[in-house]
Amino acid sequence: MVNNILSHKSVRLFTLLAGIFVTTALVAEIIGGKIFSLEITLGFEPFDLTILGVEGLGFNLTAGVILWPVIFIMTDIINEYFGMKRVKFLSYMTVGLILFSFVMIYGAIYIAPNEWWTSVSGVDASDTSNSISNMNLAFRKIMGQGLWIIIGSTVAFLIGQVVDVIVFQKIRKVTGEKKIWLRATGSTLVSQFIDSYVVLLIAFWIGSDWELVRVLAIGTMNYIYKFVVAILLTPAIYLAHNLVDSYVGATIADEMKFSASES
After folding, report:
1. What is this structure's pTM?
2. Per-residue b/e over 152-189, b at no fewer than 16 CB within 10 Å?
3. Does the pLDDT at position 5 exceed 80?
């Protein structure tokens, strides 16, 4: 029975896409505790922009945004070939797995460390500049993301995904199978506009008492980055469609798209 199910290319394709989707979202959440400078990473001087009266703004982003383009592509491909219900199912499941992973991480944080790990394990006698005398403290600081950040990121992810699939299908009903770029990029731009502000409003306006204007200014910087990335990803969307069509065949691909549009 199972062998017969997995013999279908469409099933294998969905399994692969779902695996990439869930894994990427989970890893993005876990590494999201690191803040990096996009400008310095690309070899530029950091920007010094002013938005809504907030000065000194640059593209200081969480490391998780590096992986979100993969989520954009997976969401659009799954929506295109398997329909809105499957994307929603994967989104709900992914949020559950993200929350489960953080429960496990917090459990690991609060189990008692041994003495060696808190005093010796990170010490490098040959390079004291890279030594960490208390690895348990380092683990807690790196892995222990704040509760409001976890809540904000998961709520923003879920809302963004639901908005994405709805906008995608609305545009599809108007354009039909044409203009892939419009429904794929358009749905991403709308969903990420909401995502960019929701996560910050929950994590820092509600959770940390930041001024609303600062939250909105930083959210605008984040959205500018996501807007540019979404536009640049348009060729990748077409490449992904071509790969899927080649794998399952044109006839099956058309059947899948029709079924997805009706679901």
Report:
1. 0.87
2. bbbbbbbbbbbbbbbbbbebbeeeeeeebeebbbbbbb
3. no
Which letter does DSSP use for residue 132 in this model?
A: B
Residue 49 identity:
L
d(CA 5, CA 12): 9
DSSP secondary structure code for residue 150 in this structure: H
How far apart (Å, rounded) are the C-alpha atoms in residues 219 and 155? Answer: 15
Q: What phi and psi values does residue 35 have, to the nearest 5 degrees? A: -105, 130
- Token couple for 153: 């990121």
Alpha-carbon gap, residue 99 to 107, rounded angstroms: 12
DSSP code of 64? Answer: G
Structure tokens at 132: 């960490």
Tell me the pLDDT tens digit for each residue of 95-152: 999 999 999 998 998 898 888 777 766 666 566 666 777 888 888 888 887 788 888 8
Contacts of 127 (CB under 8 A, 6+ apart): none
Which residue has 């204007």 as its token pair? 213
User: Which amino acid, 212?
Assistant: L
Q: Where are the domains of the chain?
A: 2-114+131-262
The tokens describing 19, both together, are 């695996």
Question: What is the torsional sign of CA 246, 252, 257, 260?
Answer: negative
